[in-house]
Amino acid sequence: MLKTLVRPSEDLFDNYEDVVKSVKEHDRIIITNNGVGEFVLINIEDYTDYEEFLHQRFIYNELQKSKAEAAGPNVKLIGADEVFGRIKQKIKDRGL
Prior knowledge:
Elements: E1 4-8, H1 11-14, H2 16-24, E2 28-33, E3 36-41, H3 44-70, H4 80-93
Parallel strand pairs: 1-2
Antiparallel strand pairs: 2-3
């Protein structure tokens, strides 16, 4: 189970092995300085999962924006054949 621990910044130096062990066990550690939270430590697997979540959320939001824009009254949608035809023509025009 995920736990959140709060530790002072001095623990990074004084109790480094204990901090590393906690992070490896999938705990989040909030590092404080003078009692104020400054950083969060998480292990690399949790960080990777978080990055993937952010990427998926970004893609979802962009798709929602595109969907809303496509529903606009002045938008003319074209089919895939026309899109690829235009791309092929641009390639041909550039001599590629």
